[in-house]
Amino acid sequence: MRARFSLVLLACLGALPAHAQLRRATGGVAAPVASRAVPGSAYALELAPGALGLSPSWELAALHVQGRRAGDEGADAPLPFDLRGNTLAFVAPLGAGVAVGASVDWIRGDLRGDRGRVSLGLGFAPARRVFGLGLVLRQHAGGGADGVTSLDLGLALRPHRRLALALTAHDLLAPTGLDGAEGATRGTYVLASELRLFGDDALTLGATLAADTAGDVAVAGRFDVRVPRLGRARVAVEAERLGDDAQVFRVLGGLAVDVGRGRAEGGVIAGDGVRDLAGYAGLRLRGASAPEGMPTGQVVQEFTVAGSGTRAILGLLARLDAARRDRRVAGVLLRMRAGRLPLSRAQEIREAVVALEAAGKPVACLLQAATGGEILACGAASRRVMEPAGYVRLLGPSSEILSARGLLERAGVRADFVRIGRYKSAVELYQEEAPTEPALTQRQAFLDDAWERLQGDLAADFDRTPEAVAELIDAGPFEFPGALEAGLVDGAAEPAAAGAALRDLFGRRRIVRATSPRLPTTSGLPRRVAVIVIDGSIVDGENQDVPLVGIRRSGARTLVPVIEAARRDATVAAVVLRVDSPGGSALASDQIWRAVRRLAAEKPVVASMGAVAASGGYYVASPATEIWATPTTLTGSIGVFFGKADVGPLAARLGVGVTPVTRGQRAGASSMYRSFTGDERAALAVLVRGSYRRFLHRVAGSRDLTPREVHAVAQGRIWSGEAAAARGLVDRLGGFTAALARAKALAGVPDDVEVAYVPARPSGLLGLARQLVTRGRAPALGTTDEAPPPALEAPLGLAPGTLAFVDALAGGTNGPLALLPFVVTP
Fold it and tell me: Quick one: CA dihedral 47, 50, 54, 58, positive or negative?
């Protein structure tokens, strides 16, 4: 309905006779092609004071206009409108919907002589981004307005994201005679509208109708289109005093280009045909803007934490960070439904909760059957409430070491591997009946670190000693009454009545379901941060997804072009390399390593390690400018192995005969129907040792260590993020949000900069089908203003890394492997 109304309004305004005095006697320099309904912060002082309170951020603008008159009069002849001068304007929101502004103009060479003015403005928006009021008081000196004091009042409305309206009364003191101009000025009343045809700023149309106290009428129309990677192209037509013999027509054209938070703009103004001609150039600098697309006013955002996959967690963290920065968000409600949540990812959510609480935005968690990971994630929240029939399963960190040698032998399958590194234990699943002493030792050391960190974090959140936390964990699990008595939850709440249960925390603010944050759209050459996600096993070839069992494969053939695109793209200021991978192909890892190294030589690259960034996952992260990990990230495992499964005994048991036909001494070495010969094993050992040495040198060169120093912490040994930081393998401890903030700081870009998440993963069956159809096409960074949607989750609920070894083999990897598959959940 509102859209139809705006179309009718535009048609009516276009049919009316022209605009009154758009260039008033008390006006400033000729404004550039700008909306008179949504003029932008600084230009609102001149064009629409009612929009001052709607300013999303502070803005500083400088404008210069230089004009000439063609013909006999010469270039220095006076012009009939203000086409020579400069203006400097500043607007800043103060909070609570209040904004202030000021501007200085000095104009020379027009018909009224040289003059200047100082303007002070005040705006108020009781319903942010919907309704605004404003006034501007001006003092004039020189020219025909010497000593004049003028007052402008304005009203701005934004009833729909497609429509904006503004009503402005200029020179309100003129009709009363209180302006000191002795009748030399007129009052002018302007009604302006703007229509965003697609709901954003891709294409906008504007129309303006004005009338003054002398009876003159004027109209104007404007066309504004966003040109990708270039800027905004703008054209406007103005007509004044159409019912008069001295009719005035003008055509304005301009181009605006955004670079980060700055905007450069320029254009021409032609009047009376081309008799009067001017050019303008301006610069604008603005602060951080809040995201758009949510209800106005102070609200509580509701998030459902339903998945623990890499993309699901990244999407959640991006949305929580947007809520932290959005001035309209007063608090956050987390509905915890994640279930099995790895310890590292729980710490990342906890980090986001801590940041929200520090920003003065209380967080409440609504729990069902809470796991230890969910309790850790919500430990720092202001309130934890639980369904009356809920319970808490806080049982401490654990992992399992499987040994399948006996099963394989009974099935008639022999595992045949060559490995480097006494701690490289991935192959023990298939070769040993129980874990070896080095494998068990490193697993226990990792769990010791995870246990100590879990106790420390919960002790800080619940104001207890680590020993008391250990006793509490040992006493679990708890039903709701026991959890309440133990202080793990603060009360009960029905899911449908969470608002009433949390009223003492959030007041009567509305709880609204969170959607993807839509950041302000920019044009021109905006600077942005690219997040390149490497999740699942690393394989040769392209990215692949097997959703039924939750398998993700990150292929070098997909990732390398994406990394190269980020390096070449001038708009990408920094890159976050999000690694949530146990590794895989040594060849693919090296290809990605080389691409990351080239990227880091030109732009800041911050590696953010998820639950697992081990072996090949550490390989690809090592050349980053900085490496960030959570304290319980499983990383390290610098080592290599190579092998195959020999199903010859199984074939014989099934009555399948195998007759090899070969040429060459080592022909058939890759056959799955026999084991390696001694000669082949020796040759493969050389290959594996070469891959291991390359791995050591890659890490040593990236981390400013010697190969000997890397070897001392390598040999396939795993480390917690905390232990890796103590040994120089990791630079800083922190989750994805902290790593992203660090990348922005290294690049010198604002906190609200656009973030692009690549490469895309299918978020549904349709997306999976599209991936199969488009396989082989060169990926591009593209643009996005939304957090990544979660990829398809495994319905079986398998922990990340459980099938990593089988997945790497099934993914077509036939060379040495750098792999370690397991995670820890509390």
Answer: positive
Could you give the angle at the alpha carbon of 347 between the alpha carbons of 344 and 353, nearest 5°? 155
Contact indicator for 618, 635 with CB cutoff of 8 Å = yes
**Res. 717: pLDDT tops 60:** yes
Residue with tokens 């008799």: 275
- Give the tens place of pLDDT for each residue, 171-193: 888 777 676 666 557 788 999 99
Task: Tell me which residue has tokens 């905390």.
Answer: 722
In whole angstroms, give the CA distance from residue 694 to residue 640: 10
Q: Which helix (H) or strand (E) holds 498?
A: helix 498-501
Residue 434: phi, psi to the nearest 5?
Answer: -160, 155
Q: By three-state DSSP, how is residue 63 classified?
A: strand
pTM: 0.70
Cβ–Cβ < 8 Å for 275, 68: no
| Contact present, 184 and 199 (Cβ < 8 Å) | no
Which helix (H) or strand (E) segment holds residue 678: the answer is helix 678-703
| Residue 395 zone, left/alpha/beta (φ > 0; ψ -120 to 50; rest) | alpha
Determine the length of the chain. 826
**Burial class, 215, CB count within 10 angstroms (exposed 0-12 / middle 13-18 / buried 19+):** exposed
Question: Measured in Å, how far apart are the chain's first and last C-alpha atoms?
Answer: 53
CA distance 791 to 204: 35
Q: Which of 583, 601, 609 is nearest to 821 (CA)?
A: 583
Phi-psi region of 3 (alpha: psi -120 to 50; beta: other; left: phi over 0): alpha
Is the model's pLDDT at 562 over the cut of 70?
yes
Q: What is the DSSP string of 257-303?
A: EEETTEEEEEEEEEETTTTEEEEEEEEEEE-----BSS-SSSEEEEE
Cα–Cα distance, 649 to 647 (Å, whole number):
6
Phi, psi of 592 (to 5 degrees): -70, -40
Tokens of 605: 């690259």
Residue 280 neighbours by CB distance under 10 Å: 23
Question: What mean pLDDT, rounded, does the chain reach?
Answer: 80
Count of Cβ atoms closer than 10 Å to residue 252 Cβ: 23
Banded model confidence at residue 800, pLDDT cuts 50, 70, 90: very low
More confident residue, 584 or 356: 356
How far is Cα 250 from Cα 240, in angstroms, rounded to an integer? 9
The predicted structure's pLDDT at residue 286: 83
Burial (CB count <10 Å: 0-12, 13-18, 19+), residue 465 = exposed
Amino acid at 332: V
Chain-centroid distance, C-alpha 174: 50
| Phi, psi (rounded to 5 degrees) for 208 | -140, 140
> Is the distance from CB of 532 to CB of 564 less than 8 angstroms?
no
Q: Which two tokens stand for residue 26?
A: 């008390």
- C-alpha distances (whole Å) from 441 to each of 55, 136, 248, 436, 437 are 60, 73, 88, 9, 6
pLDDT digits (tens, 9 = 90+) for 211-225: 888 778 888 899 888
Q: In this model, does residue 120 exceed pLDDT 90?
A: yes
Amino acid 777 reads R
Neighbour count for residue 185 (Cβ, 10 Å): 25
**Element (H or E) spanning 239, and its range?**
strand 231-240
C-alpha distances (whole Å) from 742 to each of 311, 689, 749 are 20, 36, 10
> Strands 605-614 and 572-581, how do they pair?
parallel
CA gap 434, 440 in Å, rounded:
9
Q: Is 50 exposed, middle or buried (0-12, 13-18, 19+ CB in 10 A)?
A: buried
Rounded-to-integer distance, Cα 741 and Cα 730, Å: 17
Identify which has the larger pLDDT, 747 or 288.
747
> Is it the case that residue 515 has pLDDT exceeding 50?
yes
Q: Which two tokens stand for residue 279?
A: 């050019």
Question: What type of residue is 224?
Answer: D
Q: 289 burial class (0-12, 13-18, 19+ CB within 10 angstroms)?
A: buried
